[in-house]
Specification:
Elements (H helix, E strand, L loop, with lengths): L2 H16 L20 H15 L5 H4 L5 H14 L7
Helix pairs in contact: 1-2
């Protein structure tokens, strides 16, 4: 799956989950510091990501995610491992 498509899908999930409307979500944007997400928001977003992309993100992987770009990289890598992915 193309990285730009994944990025757009992640942005849409963020917008739906938080009610915020971000047209552009740069890769350098920190999920907690810049977007003001708390731990509940992050868990909710991750659950939406797992459901949408039909992947599982473990705690060790999630501990490395600080920015939108980190999340995009992680999802992209997971989807590359499963080329048969179909969005929910």
């Amino acid at each position: 799956m193309d990285r730009a498509i994944i990025s757009e899908a992640l942005r849409d999930l963020y917008n739906e989950d938080t009610g915020a409307s971000l047209d552009v979500l740069g890769e350098e944007v920190a999920l907690i510091a810049d977007l003001g997400l708390d731990s509940v928001d992050v868990v909710s977003l991750i659950m939406q990501v797992e459901r949408q992309f039909r992947i599982r993100l473990n705690l060790a992987e999630l501990n490395q995610v600080q920015t939108f770009g980190d999340l995009l990289d992680l999802v992209t890598i997971k989807l590359q491992r499963d080329p048969g992915f179909r969005a929910a």
